[in-house]
Specification:
One of its GO terms (cellular component) is extracellular region. Keywords: Glycoprotein, Neurogenesis, Repeat, Secreted, Signal. It is found in: Secreted. The protein has 559 residues and is mainly beta. It folds into four domains: 101 residues, Jelly Rolls (Sandwich), CATH 2.60.120.680; 123 residues, Immunoglobulins (Immunoglobulin-like); 94 residues, Jelly Rolls (Sandwich), CATH 2.60.120; 109 residues, Immunoglobulins (Immunoglobulin-like, Sandwich), CATH 2.60.40. The strands form eight sheets. Strands 12, 13, 14, 15, 17, 18 and 19 form a seven-stranded antiparallel sheet that branches. It has a five-stranded mixed sheet with strand order 1-3-8-5-6. A five-stranded mixed sheet has the order 20-22-27-24-25, with no helix packed on it. The longest helix has 18 residues. The N terminus is likely disordered.
Length: 559
Protein backbone atom coordinates (compact mmCIF):
# COMPACT_ATOMS: atom_id res chain seq x y z
CA UNK A 1 0.00 0.00 0.00
CA UNK A 2 1.11 3.55 -0.67
CA UNK A 3 2.26 5.64 2.30
CA UNK A 4 -0.74 7.90 1.81
CA UNK A 5 -2.96 4.91 2.41
CA UNK A 6 -1.47 4.02 5.81
CA UNK A 7 -4.08 5.96 7.74
CA UNK A 8 -6.70 3.78 6.03
CA UNK A 9 -4.92 0.46 6.52
CA UNK A 10 -6.59 -0.51 9.78
CA UNK A 11 -10.02 1.02 9.03
CA UNK A 12 -9.86 -0.74 5.65
CA UNK A 13 -10.57 -4.14 7.21
CA UNK A 14 -13.52 -2.67 9.05
CA UNK A 15 -14.80 -1.13 5.82
CA UNK A 16 -14.42 -4.48 4.08
CA UNK A 17 -16.32 -6.18 6.84
CA UNK A 18 -19.06 -3.58 6.69
CA UNK A 19 -19.31 -3.95 2.91
CA UNK A 20 -19.39 -7.72 3.34
CA UNK A 21 -22.22 -7.46 5.85
CA UNK A 22 -24.19 -5.37 3.39
CA UNK A 23 -23.83 -7.87 0.57
CA UNK A 24 -24.04 -11.09 2.57
CA UNK A 25 -26.78 -12.03 4.96
CA UNK A 26 -25.91 -13.44 8.38
CA UNK A 27 -25.23 -17.17 8.02
CA UNK A 28 -27.72 -19.73 9.11
CA UNK A 29 -27.02 -23.45 9.44
CA UNK A 30 -28.35 -24.08 5.93
CA UNK A 31 -26.42 -21.22 4.37
CA UNK A 32 -23.20 -21.61 6.33
CA UNK A 33 -21.25 -23.13 3.43
CA UNK A 34 -22.47 -20.42 1.04
CA UNK A 35 -21.48 -17.76 3.55
CA UNK A 36 -18.01 -19.25 3.85
CA UNK A 37 -17.67 -19.23 0.05
CA UNK A 38 -18.77 -15.60 -0.20
CA UNK A 39 -16.44 -14.68 2.63
CA UNK A 40 -13.56 -16.41 0.86
CA UNK A 41 -14.32 -14.64 -2.41
CA UNK A 42 -14.63 -11.30 -0.71
CA UNK A 43 -11.34 -11.42 1.13
CA UNK A 44 -9.62 -12.63 -2.02
CA UNK A 45 -10.60 -9.52 -3.93
CA UNK A 46 -7.65 -7.64 -5.33
CA UNK A 47 -6.53 -4.03 -5.12
CA UNK A 48 -7.09 -2.37 -8.50
CA UNK A 49 -3.98 -0.61 -9.79
CA UNK A 50 -4.32 3.12 -10.36
CA UNK A 51 -3.22 4.41 -13.75
CA UNK A 52 -2.64 0.99 -15.27
CA UNK A 53 -4.75 -1.27 -17.47
CA UNK A 54 -5.47 -4.57 -15.70
CA UNK A 55 -6.47 -7.79 -17.45
CA UNK A 56 -9.09 -9.73 -15.50
CA UNK A 57 -9.87 -13.38 -16.25
CA UNK A 58 -13.40 -14.48 -15.35
CA UNK A 59 -14.68 -18.01 -14.83
CA UNK A 60 -18.29 -18.70 -15.73
CA UNK A 61 -20.77 -17.86 -12.91
CA UNK A 62 -17.98 -17.01 -10.46
CA UNK A 63 -17.90 -13.30 -9.52
CA UNK A 64 -14.58 -11.56 -9.20
CA UNK A 65 -14.07 -8.45 -7.09
CA UNK A 66 -11.50 -5.68 -7.07
CA UNK A 67 -11.38 -2.65 -4.80
CA UNK A 68 -9.67 0.69 -4.44
CA UNK A 69 -9.69 3.44 -1.81
CA UNK A 70 -10.12 7.18 -2.31
CA UNK A 71 -8.75 9.52 0.34
CA UNK A 72 -10.63 12.38 1.94
CA UNK A 73 -10.20 15.63 0.04
CA UNK A 74 -11.27 19.23 0.55
CA UNK A 75 -12.34 19.43 -3.10
CA UNK A 76 -14.13 16.98 -5.36
CA UNK A 77 -11.63 14.49 -6.76
CA UNK A 78 -12.49 12.95 -10.15
CA UNK A 79 -11.82 9.35 -11.11
CA UNK A 80 -12.71 7.18 -14.12
CA UNK A 81 -13.14 3.45 -14.60
CA UNK A 82 -13.15 1.93 -18.10
CA UNK A 83 -14.13 -1.71 -18.61
CA UNK A 84 -13.58 -3.45 -21.97
CA UNK A 85 -15.22 -6.87 -22.48
CA UNK A 86 -13.06 -8.98 -24.80
CA UNK A 87 -15.64 -11.59 -25.74
CA UNK A 88 -19.14 -12.28 -24.38
CA UNK A 89 -21.37 -9.79 -22.54
CA UNK A 90 -20.59 -9.44 -18.83
CA UNK A 91 -22.24 -7.92 -15.78
CA UNK A 92 -20.31 -5.46 -13.66
CA UNK A 93 -21.11 -3.02 -10.91
CA UNK A 94 -19.48 -0.47 -8.61
CA UNK A 95 -20.26 -0.44 -4.87
CA UNK A 96 -19.08 2.32 -2.53
CA UNK A 97 -18.74 2.33 1.25
CA UNK A 98 -18.09 5.77 2.66
CA UNK A 99 -16.09 5.88 5.89
CA UNK A 100 -17.64 7.59 8.90
CA UNK A 101 -15.75 10.15 10.94
CA UNK A 102 -15.26 7.58 13.66
CA UNK A 103 -13.16 5.42 11.36
CA UNK A 104 -10.80 8.03 9.98
CA UNK A 105 -7.43 8.41 11.65
CA UNK A 106 -8.38 6.51 14.84
CA UNK A 107 -6.72 3.51 16.45
CA UNK A 108 -8.89 0.43 16.20
CA UNK A 109 -7.92 -2.45 18.47
CA UNK A 110 -9.51 -5.40 20.18
CA UNK A 111 -13.13 -4.96 21.22
CA UNK A 112 -13.26 -1.52 19.62
CA UNK A 113 -12.89 -3.18 16.20
CA UNK A 114 -15.89 -5.39 16.83
CA UNK A 115 -17.87 -2.46 18.14
CA UNK A 116 -17.31 -0.42 14.97
CA UNK A 117 -18.13 -3.42 12.77
CA UNK A 118 -21.32 -3.91 14.73
CA UNK A 119 -22.26 -0.26 14.31
CA UNK A 120 -21.50 -0.45 10.58
CA UNK A 121 -23.71 -3.49 10.29
CA UNK A 122 -26.54 -1.43 11.70
CA UNK A 123 -26.00 1.24 9.05
CA UNK A 124 -26.15 -0.55 5.69
CA UNK A 125 -27.12 2.73 4.03
CA UNK A 126 -23.41 3.59 4.06
CA UNK A 127 -22.94 0.95 1.31
CA UNK A 128 -24.55 1.69 -2.03
CA UNK A 129 -24.39 0.52 -5.62
CA UNK A 130 -23.57 3.54 -7.73
CA UNK A 131 -23.31 1.87 -11.13
CA UNK A 132 -24.13 -1.41 -12.85
CA UNK A 133 -24.00 -2.54 -16.47
CA UNK A 134 -24.64 -5.64 -18.57
CA UNK A 135 -23.38 -5.99 -22.12
CA UNK A 136 -20.25 -6.24 -24.28
CA UNK A 137 -19.66 -2.56 -25.07
CA UNK A 138 -16.70 -0.58 -23.78
CA UNK A 139 -18.15 1.37 -20.85
CA UNK A 140 -16.60 4.21 -18.85
CA UNK A 141 -17.82 5.45 -15.44
CA UNK A 142 -16.77 8.94 -14.36
CA UNK A 143 -17.13 9.77 -10.68
CA UNK A 144 -16.34 12.50 -8.16
CA UNK A 145 -15.64 12.14 -4.45
CA UNK A 146 -14.48 14.28 -1.54
CA UNK A 147 -14.95 11.67 1.18
CA UNK A 148 -12.76 8.79 2.20
CA UNK A 149 -14.40 5.78 0.61
CA UNK A 150 -13.84 2.16 -0.31
CA UNK A 151 -14.96 1.23 -3.84
CA UNK A 152 -15.56 -2.33 -4.90
CA UNK A 153 -15.92 -3.52 -8.50
CA UNK A 154 -17.68 -6.83 -9.10
CA UNK A 155 -17.49 -8.66 -12.44
CA UNK A 156 -19.51 -11.68 -13.56
CA UNK A 157 -19.70 -13.72 -16.77
CA UNK A 158 -22.77 -15.95 -17.07
CA UNK A 159 -22.11 -17.29 -20.59
CA UNK A 160 -18.58 -18.75 -20.45
CA UNK A 161 -15.03 -18.17 -19.26
CA UNK A 162 -13.73 -14.91 -20.65
CA UNK A 163 -11.42 -12.00 -19.97
CA UNK A 164 -11.79 -8.21 -19.77
CA UNK A 165 -9.55 -5.21 -19.26
CA UNK A 166 -10.12 -2.63 -16.50
CA UNK A 167 -8.53 0.81 -16.29
CA UNK A 168 -8.77 3.02 -13.22
CA UNK A 169 -7.27 6.48 -12.96
CA UNK A 170 -7.53 9.17 -10.31
CA UNK A 171 -5.17 11.49 -12.20
CA UNK A 172 -7.13 13.17 -14.97
CA UNK A 173 -4.50 15.87 -15.57
CA UNK A 174 -1.69 13.74 -17.02
CA UNK A 175 -3.43 12.78 -20.27
CA UNK A 176 -5.38 9.73 -21.36
CA UNK A 177 -4.33 6.11 -21.61
CA UNK A 178 -6.95 5.62 -24.32
CA UNK A 179 -6.88 7.76 -27.45
CA UNK A 180 -9.81 10.15 -27.69
CA UNK A 181 -12.65 9.72 -30.14
CA UNK A 182 -14.13 12.67 -32.03
CA UNK A 183 -17.56 14.02 -31.14
CA UNK A 184 -18.96 12.06 -34.09
CA UNK A 185 -17.24 8.63 -34.05
CA UNK A 186 -19.09 7.18 -37.03
CA UNK A 187 -17.40 5.68 -40.09
CA UNK A 188 -18.80 6.93 -43.40
CA UNK A 189 -18.90 4.85 -46.58
CA UNK A 190 -18.17 7.23 -49.46
CA UNK A 191 -17.58 4.77 -52.28
CA UNK A 192 -18.54 1.22 -53.22
CA UNK A 193 -17.22 -0.80 -56.16
CA UNK A 194 -17.18 -4.42 -57.27
CA UNK A 195 -14.01 -5.15 -55.29
CA UNK A 196 -13.43 -1.99 -53.21
CA UNK A 197 -15.06 0.07 -50.48
CA UNK A 198 -13.86 3.58 -49.60
CA UNK A 199 -14.22 4.73 -45.98
CA UNK A 200 -13.65 7.99 -44.16
CA UNK A 201 -13.87 9.05 -40.51
CA UNK A 202 -13.28 12.18 -38.46
CA UNK A 203 -9.85 12.66 -36.93
CA UNK A 204 -9.25 11.71 -33.32
CA UNK A 205 -8.10 14.69 -31.19
CA UNK A 206 -5.24 12.42 -30.05
CA UNK A 207 -3.94 12.15 -33.62
CA UNK A 208 -3.84 15.90 -33.95
CA UNK A 209 -1.92 16.24 -30.66
CA UNK A 210 0.38 13.18 -30.75
CA UNK A 211 0.77 12.31 -34.44
CA UNK A 212 3.97 10.28 -33.93
CA UNK A 213 2.54 7.86 -31.36
CA UNK A 214 -1.05 7.49 -32.63
CA UNK A 215 -2.32 5.67 -35.70
CA UNK A 216 -5.52 4.28 -37.18
CA UNK A 217 -6.03 0.57 -37.74
CA UNK A 218 -8.87 -0.89 -39.77
CA UNK A 219 -10.44 -4.31 -39.33
CA UNK A 220 -12.43 -5.96 -42.14
CA UNK A 221 -14.45 -9.18 -41.91
CA UNK A 222 -17.62 -10.81 -43.21
CA UNK A 223 -19.30 -11.68 -39.86
CA UNK A 224 -20.06 -8.66 -37.69
CA UNK A 225 -18.63 -5.50 -36.16
CA UNK A 226 -16.38 -5.60 -33.11
CA UNK A 227 -16.71 -3.13 -30.24
CA UNK A 228 -13.06 -3.34 -29.20
CA UNK A 229 -9.77 -4.50 -30.61
CA UNK A 230 -9.38 -7.15 -27.91
CA UNK A 231 -12.84 -8.51 -28.80
CA UNK A 232 -11.72 -8.89 -32.41
CA UNK A 233 -8.51 -10.65 -31.41
CA UNK A 234 -10.40 -12.99 -29.07
CA UNK A 235 -12.78 -13.94 -31.88
CA UNK A 236 -9.86 -14.72 -34.17
CA UNK A 237 -8.14 -16.81 -31.50
CA UNK A 238 -11.33 -18.78 -30.87
CA UNK A 239 -11.26 -19.79 -34.53
CA UNK A 240 -7.96 -21.56 -34.00
CA UNK A 241 -5.63 -18.63 -34.62
CA UNK A 242 -2.79 -17.30 -32.53
CA UNK A 243 -2.42 -13.56 -32.79
CA UNK A 244 0.55 -11.36 -31.96
CA UNK A 245 0.12 -8.96 -29.04
CA UNK A 246 -2.36 -6.16 -29.64
CA UNK A 247 -1.29 -4.05 -32.57
CA UNK A 248 2.14 -5.64 -32.73
CA UNK A 249 1.16 -6.18 -36.34
CA UNK A 250 2.06 -2.55 -36.94
CA UNK A 251 5.48 -2.97 -35.38
CA UNK A 252 7.03 -6.33 -36.20
CA UNK A 253 6.48 -8.87 -38.99
CA UNK A 254 8.41 -11.46 -36.97
CA UNK A 255 5.37 -11.97 -34.71
CA UNK A 256 3.31 -13.41 -37.55
CA UNK A 257 1.96 -16.92 -37.26
CA UNK A 258 2.10 -19.47 -40.12
CA UNK A 259 -1.62 -18.84 -40.79
CA UNK A 260 -0.98 -15.12 -41.38
CA UNK A 261 0.09 -13.22 -44.47
CA UNK A 262 1.71 -9.79 -44.29
CA UNK A 263 1.31 -7.30 -47.12
CA UNK A 264 3.35 -4.07 -47.03
CA UNK A 265 2.44 -1.52 -49.68
CA UNK A 266 2.61 2.28 -49.84
CA UNK A 267 3.48 2.55 -46.11
CA UNK A 268 0.42 0.50 -45.15
CA UNK A 269 0.79 -2.78 -43.33
CA UNK A 270 -1.92 -5.40 -43.66
CA UNK A 271 -2.21 -8.67 -41.78
CA UNK A 272 -4.58 -11.22 -43.26
CA UNK A 273 -5.65 -13.92 -40.81
CA UNK A 274 -6.85 -17.04 -42.60
CA UNK A 275 -9.77 -18.12 -40.46
CA UNK A 276 -12.13 -20.88 -41.62
CA UNK A 277 -11.72 -19.82 -45.25
CA UNK A 278 -13.01 -16.31 -44.38
CA UNK A 279 -10.30 -13.77 -43.91
CA UNK A 280 -10.07 -11.13 -41.21
CA UNK A 281 -7.89 -8.23 -42.27
CA UNK A 282 -6.15 -5.82 -39.95
CA UNK A 283 -4.76 -2.85 -41.85
CA UNK A 284 -2.84 -0.03 -40.19
CA UNK A 285 -2.92 3.15 -42.28
CA UNK A 286 -0.96 5.63 -40.17
CA UNK A 287 -2.79 8.90 -39.58
CA UNK A 288 -4.83 8.94 -42.81
CA UNK A 289 -8.56 9.17 -42.17
CA UNK A 290 -9.67 8.00 -45.64
CA UNK A 291 -8.91 4.55 -46.99
CA UNK A 292 -10.02 2.38 -49.90
CA UNK A 293 -10.15 -1.29 -48.94
CA UNK A 294 -8.98 -3.32 -51.96
CA UNK A 295 -9.33 -6.93 -53.15
CA UNK A 296 -12.86 -7.57 -51.87
CA UNK A 297 -15.25 -10.10 -53.41
CA UNK A 298 -18.18 -8.85 -55.50
CA UNK A 299 -21.71 -8.95 -54.07
CA UNK A 300 -20.45 -9.61 -50.52
CA UNK A 301 -21.33 -7.84 -47.26
CA UNK A 302 -18.34 -6.67 -45.23
CA UNK A 303 -18.12 -5.16 -41.76
CA UNK A 304 -15.61 -2.38 -41.11
CA UNK A 305 -14.20 -1.21 -37.78
CA UNK A 306 -11.69 1.59 -37.19
CA UNK A 307 -9.53 1.73 -34.06
CA UNK A 308 -7.37 4.64 -33.01
CA UNK A 309 -4.32 3.16 -31.29
CA UNK A 310 -1.72 4.55 -28.91
CA UNK A 311 1.49 2.82 -30.00
CA UNK A 312 3.22 3.63 -26.71
CA UNK A 313 0.62 1.97 -24.47
CA UNK A 314 -1.13 -0.42 -26.94
CA UNK A 315 -4.44 1.05 -25.74
CA UNK A 316 -7.12 1.65 -28.37
CA UNK A 317 -10.53 3.21 -28.83
CA UNK A 318 -13.14 1.98 -31.32
CA UNK A 319 -15.10 4.10 -33.74
CA UNK A 320 -18.72 3.08 -34.38
CA UNK A 321 -18.48 0.25 -36.90
CA UNK A 322 -20.25 0.18 -40.24
CA UNK A 323 -20.95 -2.27 -43.05
CA UNK A 324 -21.34 -2.23 -46.83
CA UNK A 325 -22.11 -4.65 -49.63
CA UNK A 326 -19.89 -4.64 -52.69
CA UNK A 327 -21.52 -4.31 -56.08
CA UNK A 328 -22.41 -7.31 -58.18
CA UNK A 329 -19.85 -8.10 -60.84
CA UNK A 330 -21.24 -7.28 -64.29
CA UNK A 331 -21.68 -10.09 -66.77
CA UNK A 332 -18.36 -10.55 -68.54
CA UNK A 333 -18.19 -9.47 -72.15
CA UNK A 334 -18.38 -12.52 -74.39
CA UNK A 335 -16.12 -12.72 -77.45
CA UNK A 336 -17.27 -14.83 -80.39
CA UNK A 337 -14.72 -17.31 -81.76
CA UNK A 338 -14.57 -17.97 -85.49
CA UNK A 339 -13.27 -21.06 -87.26
CA UNK A 340 -9.50 -21.05 -87.64
CA UNK A 341 -8.99 -17.52 -86.30
CA UNK A 342 -6.37 -17.06 -83.56
CA UNK A 343 -6.97 -14.47 -80.83
CA UNK A 344 -4.64 -13.51 -77.98
CA UNK A 345 -6.21 -12.75 -74.59
CA UNK A 346 -4.53 -10.78 -71.76
CA UNK A 347 -5.90 -11.74 -68.31
CA UNK A 348 -5.95 -9.45 -65.27
CA UNK A 349 -4.23 -11.35 -62.46
CA UNK A 350 -4.79 -8.71 -59.78
CA UNK A 351 -8.59 -8.73 -59.96
CA UNK A 352 -8.85 -12.42 -60.97
CA UNK A 353 -11.52 -11.65 -63.56
CA UNK A 354 -12.82 -14.24 -66.03
CA UNK A 355 -12.56 -13.72 -69.78
CA UNK A 356 -15.39 -15.38 -71.68
CA UNK A 357 -15.37 -16.78 -75.23
CA UNK A 358 -18.21 -18.44 -77.12
CA UNK A 359 -18.34 -20.66 -80.19
CA UNK A 360 -21.27 -22.24 -82.07
CA UNK A 361 -20.21 -25.48 -83.73
CA UNK A 362 -20.69 -25.93 -87.45
CA UNK A 363 -19.22 -29.42 -87.35
CA UNK A 364 -19.65 -32.41 -85.06
CA UNK A 365 -15.92 -32.58 -84.27
CA UNK A 366 -13.96 -29.52 -83.22
CA UNK A 367 -10.61 -28.78 -81.63
CA UNK A 368 -9.70 -26.00 -79.21
CA UNK A 369 -6.02 -24.99 -79.12
CA UNK A 370 -4.48 -22.95 -76.29
CA UNK A 371 -0.92 -21.62 -76.36
CA UNK A 372 0.19 -20.18 -73.03
CA UNK A 373 2.20 -17.02 -73.64
CA UNK A 374 2.90 -15.76 -70.11
CA UNK A 375 1.96 -16.60 -66.51
CA UNK A 376 -0.48 -19.38 -65.53
CA UNK A 377 -4.01 -19.80 -66.93
CA UNK A 378 -7.04 -21.82 -65.91
CA UNK A 379 -9.30 -23.02 -68.76
CA UNK A 380 -12.94 -24.05 -68.26
CA UNK A 381 -14.96 -25.30 -71.26
CA UNK A 382 -18.70 -26.05 -71.24
CA UNK A 383 -20.94 -27.47 -73.96
CA UNK A 384 -24.58 -26.38 -73.72
CA UNK A 385 -23.97 -25.50 -70.06
CA UNK A 386 -22.24 -28.77 -69.06
CA UNK A 387 -18.54 -28.88 -68.21
CA UNK A 388 -16.44 -30.87 -70.70
CA UNK A 389 -12.93 -29.71 -69.67
CA UNK A 390 -11.34 -27.76 -66.84
CA UNK A 391 -7.62 -27.54 -66.06
CA UNK A 392 -4.55 -25.32 -65.73
CA UNK A 393 -2.64 -25.21 -69.00
CA UNK A 394 1.05 -24.95 -69.80
CA UNK A 395 2.78 -24.72 -73.14
CA UNK A 396 0.50 -25.85 -75.96
CA UNK A 397 -2.73 -27.70 -75.16
CA UNK A 398 -5.33 -29.28 -77.47
CA UNK A 399 -8.92 -30.28 -76.60
CA UNK A 400 -10.67 -32.45 -79.22
CA UNK A 401 -14.42 -32.55 -78.63
CA UNK A 402 -17.42 -34.29 -80.21
CA UNK A 403 -20.98 -33.01 -80.29
CA UNK A 404 -23.84 -31.99 -82.52
CA UNK A 405 -24.24 -29.29 -85.07
CA UNK A 406 -24.96 -25.87 -83.54
CA UNK A 407 -23.80 -26.95 -80.06
CA UNK A 408 -22.78 -23.87 -78.04
CA UNK A 409 -19.35 -23.98 -76.42
CA UNK A 410 -18.35 -21.47 -73.76
CA UNK A 411 -14.75 -20.93 -72.68
CA UNK A 412 -13.77 -19.13 -69.47
CA UNK A 413 -10.15 -18.08 -68.93
CA UNK A 414 -8.64 -16.84 -65.67
CA UNK A 415 -5.13 -16.02 -64.51
CA UNK A 416 -4.10 -18.13 -61.52
CA UNK A 417 -1.31 -15.70 -60.61
CA UNK A 418 -1.46 -12.17 -59.22
CA UNK A 419 0.44 -10.93 -62.28
CA UNK A 420 -1.14 -10.67 -65.70
CA UNK A 421 -1.20 -13.75 -67.91
CA UNK A 422 -1.81 -14.13 -71.64
CA UNK A 423 -2.86 -16.98 -73.91
CA UNK A 424 -3.57 -17.58 -77.59
CA UNK A 425 -6.81 -19.38 -78.45
CA UNK A 426 -8.00 -21.04 -81.65
CA UNK A 427 -10.96 -23.28 -82.51
CA UNK A 428 -11.34 -25.17 -85.76
CA UNK A 429 -13.05 -28.24 -87.24
CA UNK A 430 -11.10 -31.35 -86.29
CA UNK A 431 -10.24 -32.28 -89.89
CA UNK A 432 -8.57 -28.94 -90.67
CA UNK A 433 -4.80 -28.82 -90.86
CA UNK A 434 -3.43 -27.79 -87.45
CA UNK A 435 -2.37 -24.18 -87.21
CA UNK A 436 0.41 -24.95 -84.73
CA UNK A 437 3.31 -27.28 -85.52
CA UNK A 438 3.56 -30.84 -84.25
CA UNK A 439 5.32 -30.61 -80.88
CA UNK A 440 8.03 -32.84 -79.39
CA UNK A 441 7.54 -34.65 -76.11
CA UNK A 442 9.38 -31.86 -74.25
CA UNK A 443 10.13 -28.22 -75.01
CA UNK A 444 13.14 -28.08 -72.68
CA UNK A 445 16.61 -27.11 -73.89
CA UNK A 446 19.49 -29.14 -72.42
CA UNK A 447 23.07 -27.94 -71.96
CA UNK A 448 26.14 -30.14 -71.44
CA UNK A 449 28.32 -28.94 -68.58
CA UNK A 450 31.31 -31.07 -69.62
CA UNK A 451 31.26 -29.58 -73.13
CA UNK A 452 31.33 -25.98 -71.88
CA UNK A 453 34.48 -24.01 -72.65
CA UNK A 454 35.52 -20.40 -72.13
CA UNK A 455 34.10 -19.40 -75.53
CA UNK A 456 31.48 -22.05 -76.40
CA UNK A 457 28.55 -24.07 -75.08
CA UNK A 458 26.70 -27.08 -76.47
CA UNK A 459 22.92 -27.32 -76.30
CA UNK A 460 20.38 -29.95 -77.44
CA UNK A 461 16.63 -30.18 -77.98
CA UNK A 462 14.04 -32.67 -79.15
CA UNK A 463 12.46 -32.69 -82.61
CA UNK A 464 9.52 -34.52 -84.18
CA UNK A 465 8.70 -36.93 -87.02
CA UNK A 466 7.65 -33.95 -89.14
CA UNK A 467 10.29 -31.92 -90.95
CA UNK A 468 10.32 -28.50 -89.34
CA UNK A 469 12.47 -25.40 -89.13
CA UNK A 470 14.37 -24.57 -85.91
CA UNK A 471 16.05 -21.22 -85.20
CA UNK A 472 18.48 -20.55 -82.32
CA UNK A 473 18.94 -17.15 -80.66
CA UNK A 474 21.31 -16.04 -77.88
CA UNK A 475 21.56 -12.98 -75.65
CA UNK A 476 24.06 -11.92 -73.03
CA UNK A 477 22.48 -11.19 -69.63
CA UNK A 478 23.56 -10.24 -66.09
CA UNK A 479 23.11 -12.30 -62.92
CA UNK A 480 20.35 -10.05 -61.55
CA UNK A 481 18.37 -10.35 -64.81
CA UNK A 482 17.99 -14.14 -64.85
CA UNK A 483 14.86 -14.49 -62.72
CA UNK A 484 13.06 -11.61 -64.43
CA UNK A 485 13.90 -12.87 -67.92
CA UNK A 486 12.69 -16.40 -67.20
CA UNK A 487 9.50 -15.22 -65.50
CA UNK A 488 8.48 -12.51 -67.94
CA UNK A 489 9.33 -14.27 -71.20
CA UNK A 490 6.49 -14.16 -73.74
CA UNK A 491 6.39 -17.70 -75.10
CA UNK A 492 4.09 -16.65 -77.93
CA UNK A 493 6.42 -14.02 -79.36
CA UNK A 494 8.38 -15.05 -82.44
CA UNK A 495 11.84 -14.23 -83.78
CA UNK A 496 10.48 -10.98 -85.20
CA UNK A 497 10.70 -9.55 -81.66
CA UNK A 498 14.42 -10.34 -81.44
CA UNK A 499 17.36 -8.21 -82.56
CA UNK A 500 19.10 -9.47 -85.68
CA UNK A 501 22.42 -9.69 -83.83
CA UNK A 502 20.91 -12.31 -81.46
CA UNK A 503 20.26 -14.84 -84.21
CA UNK A 504 22.74 -17.75 -84.23
CA UNK A 505 21.41 -20.14 -86.92
CA UNK A 506 18.36 -21.85 -88.45
CA UNK A 507 18.19 -25.52 -89.46
CA UNK A 508 15.73 -28.19 -90.63
CA UNK A 509 15.58 -31.70 -89.23
CA UNK A 510 13.28 -34.59 -88.34
CA UNK A 511 13.48 -38.31 -87.62
CA UNK A 512 10.78 -40.93 -88.04
CA UNK A 513 12.23 -42.68 -85.02
CA UNK A 514 11.33 -40.45 -82.08
CA UNK A 515 14.13 -42.00 -80.02
CA UNK A 516 16.61 -40.37 -82.42
CA UNK A 517 14.70 -37.12 -82.99
CA UNK A 518 17.20 -34.98 -81.13
CA UNK A 519 19.71 -32.44 -82.38
CA UNK A 520 22.67 -30.60 -80.86
CA UNK A 521 24.44 -27.36 -81.61
CA UNK A 522 27.71 -25.89 -80.37
CA UNK A 523 27.56 -22.10 -80.19
CA UNK A 524 31.00 -20.52 -80.46
CA UNK A 525 32.47 -17.03 -80.19
CA UNK A 526 31.28 -16.44 -76.62
CA UNK A 527 33.02 -14.52 -73.80
CA UNK A 528 34.58 -16.30 -70.82
CA UNK A 529 32.71 -16.37 -67.49
CA UNK A 530 29.57 -14.86 -69.05
CA UNK A 531 25.87 -15.72 -68.75
CA UNK A 532 23.89 -16.30 -71.97
CA UNK A 533 20.18 -16.78 -72.55
CA UNK A 534 19.42 -19.30 -75.34
CA UNK A 535 16.06 -19.67 -77.15
CA UNK A 536 14.92 -22.14 -79.81
CA UNK A 537 11.90 -21.45 -82.07
CA UNK A 538 10.03 -24.24 -83.88
CA UNK A 539 8.16 -23.35 -87.10
CA UNK A 540 5.37 -25.54 -88.51
CA UNK A 541 3.80 -25.61 -91.97
CA UNK A 542 1.64 -22.57 -91.18
CA UNK A 543 4.66 -20.52 -90.14
CA UNK A 544 3.41 -19.88 -86.58
CA UNK A 545 6.35 -20.39 -84.16
CA UNK A 546 6.46 -22.22 -80.85
CA UNK A 547 9.16 -21.13 -78.43
CA UNK A 548 11.07 -23.67 -76.35
CA UNK A 549 11.71 -22.92 -72.67
CA UNK A 550 14.62 -20.48 -72.36
CA UNK A 551 17.94 -21.84 -71.09
CA UNK A 552 20.61 -19.86 -69.21
CA UNK A 553 24.18 -21.15 -69.49
CA UNK A 554 27.45 -19.63 -68.19
CA UNK A 555 30.73 -20.14 -70.02
CA UNK A 556 33.79 -21.26 -68.09
CA UNK A 557 35.83 -18.50 -66.48
CA UNK A 558 39.17 -20.28 -66.89
CA UNK A 559 40.20 -22.91 -69.42
Amino acid sequence: LKMSWLKFYLPLHILLAACLCHSIKAPTTSSHQSFKTDLFNFYHSLILADGKETTVHLLKDIPKRYYFVLEESRVLSPFTITVTPCDVPIEWSILVHKASARLQGKDTQGDHDRQEVSQSQKAPSMVSTIFNYKGNSVETYMGMSSHAALYMLEFLSTERDTHITVYLTTDTTSGHLYPELPMDPRIDVIGIGHATVTLTWKHSPSVLQHRESIQYCLLVNEKHNYKSLCAAETAIRSSGMKLPPTLALSLSPYLLEPQQVMILSHSELSIINKVSSREVRQICVGTKNTYTVPSLSPSTQYYFDVFVVNLLTNASAAYTGTFARTLEEPEPKVTELKDGKVIQVVLDGKNQKFYSLQYQARHKKIQFTFQLCRGQVRVHITKNGKTVASENISGLRYFSLKGKLLDTYSVQLRSTEETNSSVKVQVSPHFHKPLFPLLPESLKIKSFSKLRTCNSVTIAWLGTQEESKYCVFKRRIEEDQVWRELQSADRCSGPESRHKSEKVLCKYFYDLNLQRAVTTETIKGLSAGTLYLFDVYLFGPSGIPVRYHSKVVKTRKKC
